Amino acid sequence: xxxxxxxxxxxxxxxxxxxxxxxxxxxxxxxxxxxxxxxxxxxxxxxxxxxxxxxxxxxxxxxxxxxxxxxxxxxxxxxxxxxxxxxxxxxxxxxxxxxxxxxxxxxxxxxxxxxxxxxxxxxxxxxxxxxxxxxxxxxxxxxxxxxxxxxxxxxxxxxxxxxxxxxxxxxxxxxxxxxxxxxxxxxxxxxxxxxxxxxxxxxxxxxxxxxxxxxxxxxxxxxxxxxxxxxxxxxxxxxxxxxxxxxxxxxxxxxxxxxxxxxxxxxxxxxxxxxxxxxxxxxxxxxxxxxxxxxxxxxxxxxxxxxxxxxxxxxxxxxxxxxxxxxxxxxxxxxxxxxxxxxxxxxxxxxxxxxxxxxxxxxxxxxxxxxxxxxxxxxxxxxxxxxxxxxxxxxxxxxxxxxxxxxxxxxxxxxxxxxxxxxxxxxxxxxxxxxxxxxxxxxxxxxxxxxxxxxxxxxxxxxxxxxxxxxxxxxxx
Amino acid sequence: xxxxxxxxxxxxxxxxxxxxxxxxxxxxxxxxxxxxxxxxxxxxxxxxxxxxxxxxxxxxxxxxxxxxxxxxxxxxxxxxxxxxxxxxxxxxxxxxxxxxxxxxxxxxxxxxxxxxxxxxxxxxxxxxxxxxxxxxxxxxxxxxxxxxxxxxxxxxxxxxxxxxxxxxxxxxxxxxxxxxxxxxxxxxxxxxxxxxxxxxxxxxxxxxxxxxxxxxxxxxxxxxxxxxxxxxxxxxxxxxxxxxxxxxxxxxxxxxxxxxxxxxxxxxxxxxxxxxxxxxxxxxxxxxxxxxxxxxxxxxxxxxxxxxxxxxxxxxxxxxxxxxxxxxxxxxxxxxxxxxxxxxxxxxxxxxxxxxxxxxxxxxxxxxxxxxxxxxxxxxxxxxxxxxxxxxxxxxxxxxxxxxxxxxxxxxxxxxxxxxxxxxxxxxxxxxxxxxxxxxxxxxxxxxxxxxxxxxxxxxxxxxxxxxxxxxxxxxx
Lengths: 477, 477
Description:
The structure is a homodimer. The first copy, chain A, has helices spanning 11-23, 37-51, 72-76, 90-103, 119-122, 150-162, 179-195, 201-215, 221-228, 233-241, 260-274, 279-296, 304-314, 344-361, 366-370, 444-458; strands at 4-8, 27-31, 66-69, 81-84, 109-112, 130-134, 143-147, 166-169, 325-330, 373-384, 393-404, 407-415, 421-433, 438-439. Chain A is of the alpha/beta class. In chain A, helix 4 (90-103) links the parallel strand 4 and strand 5. The first copy, chain A, is globular, with a radius of gyration of 27 Å. At the A-B interface, helix 7, helix 8, helix 9, helix 10 and helix 11 of A face helix 7, helix 8, helix 9, helix 10 and helix 11 of B.
C-alpha cells in the first residue's frame, strides 16, 4: 500500500519533507498558496535527488507521485501524514490546524515543523498536532524531534524509521525542544564574541569545524566528556569540571542587543567568509560533505551510520533477470574524481559488492563467514569500456564461468542506466578456512547452490573478454 | 634540522601533544613527576600511531626521539617549543612558568594548553607564555587556539601548520577563548534539560549527532545559517530569526545548581548510554569515526579536508629505488573489512594512486590534465597474493612494460612492509583528449619522458604474471 503525505507550506523545510517522502516511495500532495512554491520545491528536489540516494549502496524505492493542489481538502484526502511547515506565527499555524483538523482523515498523523512552539500551544484550538521538527537539509539529516501525544508520537516514529530517519521523542514539552535550545545558547555566546571583536564569523566557524564540531558528528556532548574523564569515568569528569560552571566564563546572563550595527557587522563578515560561493554552490558543497562523512560512519555504525545501515537492510536486494542482478544502486559523488568520472577503484568496489551479493545467493552469507568460511579473491581482470558518473544508476549482473571444488570463477558486467556496458570484471576466488587461512572446500550446501548456477549459466553465451590478458588485441580471439 | 619539543605534564592533552610532535618527526622531551606519566603517555601514543598516519595517503616523517626527564633544565635544553599541560590551577602554572622562563632557550615558544586562563593572567609572573589550546584527541583534531603576543603567536602558527594543525589566533584575550565558551553555553543548557527531565544524556547526544552535529563537522554556525537564509542572504536570516533572541527560550540566565543528586543522575544515565564499552574502546571508535569523516572531507577540501590536503602536499613523495616508488603510505582502518583485511577495491585504489604518481613523474601532472590531456585506464589485471591489514605500511613500485604512441602499459607491485609481495596490478592506459574524449597522442615532452623509463625498464626482468588471464595455470608459462 502506497502511503500519501500532505505537505502544507513549501520552502526549505517543506521542500525537504517533500523530498524525503517522495524519494522513499510515498505519494506527496503539496498545498501552498505561494505561486513560487512549485519552483522552490523543485530546487530542493533537485538537491535531494543527487544526495539522498548516494547514502546507500542499494536503490531506493521508485519515487511516488507529486501533485500540487489549490484545494486543501483535496490535498488532505487519503493522507497518512500531514506536515505543516509554514512561518513561525502562532495565529497562522492555528488557522491552518483548525482547518486540517476538520478535513484530514481521522487517523492521519498531523505534524508541525515548528522550531519553537509547544504542542499544547499549537493545540489550543482543539487540534491533535504533534511537533515533528526536522533539520536542514531534511533529505539528508536523520533527526526529527517528536513532541506531544505519546501514542501519536510512537506511530509517527515508526513511519519516520521506515523512511530512514531518526525519531527522537522528547519526554516533556518545552519551547524549542532540545537541539534548538542548545543552538540558541551557542548563538547568543557567538553574538557576544563577534560584538566584542574576539573573533570574526569565519574564525568562530573554524573554531567549531576544526575542533569539537568534528567530534559531535559521531558522538555527542556527554559521551565525549565521558571519554575525556578517562577510566575514572563521568563522575570524575564532572568533579573536575563541575565547579567551572560557577565561573563567569560566558556572558550568557545577558542577551546582546540586536542593533543595526551588529547586524551589519555580521552580514559583512559573512559575505567576506562565504560570499564567493552562491547559495546553491554552498548547498551542494554541504550535501557532498555530509554524504561523504555519513557514508564514512556506516563502517563503524556510529550515530547516523547505524541509521543508514539499518535502513539499507530494509531496502530490497536486487532482483533476478536471466543473470542474477547483484548490484543495483546510485553512483555517489564520493566515488568520482574531480572530472565527475567514477574512479577506477570504485569499479572494483562495485565488483566486490557484486561478489558479496552473489556469495549470499549461494548461501555463503554473513553467518557462513562468521562460522569460519569464506571465498578470497585471488585474481581479477577489469575492462574499462565506458565512463560512469555521479548520479547515474549502476546495475551489475553476475555470470558463473565455473564453480567446483575450491574455486569460483565469476564474470561481472557493470551496466549503465541505459543498459550500455560500462565495464567488465572477471574474477577468480578460492574458498578458505578463515581459522587456518588455508584453502578448503565449501560446505555441501554452498557447493550445491554454486553448481546449480554454474549449470544454468553454462547454457548462456560466453561473455566477451573472458580469458583476456592485458593489452590482448581484439582481433586475436 | 630536527626540532625539539618539551612537554610539561602528561595525561590526555600532554600525551596528545607528545604524539603530534613525535609523529611529525620532532624530538620530544617529557617532564612530569607523576610516576604513571610514561604509562599514560604510551597509551595515548598507541592510539595516535594507529590514527594520525591513517589521515594521509603518503607517509609521515620518521618518528623523532622520545626521552623522559627528571630534570626540567635538561628537558628544556635546545627546545624550539615548550608546551605546558598541567591541571587548571593558576598557582601551579605560575610556579612552572617562572622556572621555564629562567631555563628555556631565549627564543623558545612557550605555550600553555590552559582551557580557561588568559595569557595576561598566566604572565603575571613575568613569563612570555602564549595560550596554545588544543582539542582532544590532539593527535587528530587540527584546531589550536592561540592567544597572546602577536609575534610569538605568528611564529607558533607557522610551526603548527608545519605539523598539520590549524592555528586560530584569537584577536583579544578572554577567559576560555572561543570554542570552550560555546561548549560552556551548551553544557549549561544541557544540564537544565537533564535536570528538568526533558531528555536523558543519551537523548541529548542523539539530538546533537543526528542533526546539527553532522553539519558542524564541515561548516560552522554562521555559514550554515547563511545557507538557511537562502538567496536573500545572512541579513535576511537575522531579520527572520533575530527577534527570537529576546524569547526566554533558554534558561541561560541561570546557572543550575550542581547537587550530588544531579551528578548521580548524569553519571547513571551516562553509564546506561555508554557503559557497555570501555574507555579504550570508545577512544578507538571515536578515532576510527574521525578518521573516516576527515578523510571524506579531503575530497571537497572543506574544513579539515583542506588542512589535510595542504599538509599532505608538503609530505615527501616516495623516493627512487631501481624501480620508481609510486606509493609509500599507511593502510588506514577505513580500507579494511570487518576481518581487518584490506578490501579488494583499495588494492585498485593504491594502484590508481601509483598510476597518478607515475603520470606526475613523466610530466602528465595536474597542470597537464588541466590543459585537457590525460591517460584513461582501459584494462587492469590484479593478482591478490598476500593479505594486507590496517596499520601496515604499503609501498608500490611501478615498472613500464611499454610506453609509445597512445598507450602506456604499467606493472605495479604492491609490497608489504617486510618487502613481501602482497599483490600485482598490470594496467593498460590510453592517452585521451579530454575535450573531445577521443584518443590522442601525448605531448612530445611526456612521450619522451615515458620512453626513457620504458628503455630503462626494458633491461629489467619481466615481472612474474605479465600477460596472465584469470585462472591461467601457473605451469603454463
